[in-house]
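user: can you give me the structure for this one chain? C-alpha cells are fine.
assistant: on it. calling the predictor now.
[tool input]
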Amino acid sequence: MARRGKIRLRGIAEPVLGREPLVIRLCSAFVDNLTLILRTALVAGALFLVQDLSDFYDRVTDDAVEAETAQIELDKEPVPDDVIEAKEPVINDRILHAKNCTITEYREAHYDDCVDEPSVVYPRPEADPDDIGYLADESPVMFASLDN
C-alpha cells in the first residue's frame, strides 16, 4: 500500500524573483519588444492612411463628376433672351474711361478728366514746341469774331 502522509521535498527551489526587481524586468522586456511594437504601429498607420486617401479620392472624383454633370445640364438648358438683355453691361462708360486713362496718349489728351490735381504720379504734359496751336494754360485774352 502507498503511504499517505506528508510529501517531503528533496531539494530547495530558487526564488521566483531572482536578483532583478519586477519593474526592471518589465522595462527590459518592453525595450526588447519595442521594435515589434513600432513595426505594428507603422503598419496600422499605413493602413489608416491608405483608407483616408481612398476616401478622399472618392470624394474628389464624385465632386468632379457632379460638377461635370451640372455643367452639361447648364449647357443643355437654353437661356431666355430677356434674361440676357436684362443684365447690366459689365463695362460701362465710367469703367471704359478709367481703363482708357491708363493709356498714356489718352491720358495726355484728356489730362483734366483723367487726373485729379495735384498729382505726384502723373505730371501735367508739357507743350510740344512744334505745335503752335497747343496752349498749356487758358489764354487770359478773349478773342471775338464776326459771323459772315
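assistant: here you go. Residues 88-122 form one domain. The helical segments are 22-32, 34-76, 81-86, 93-100, 104-109, 111-114.
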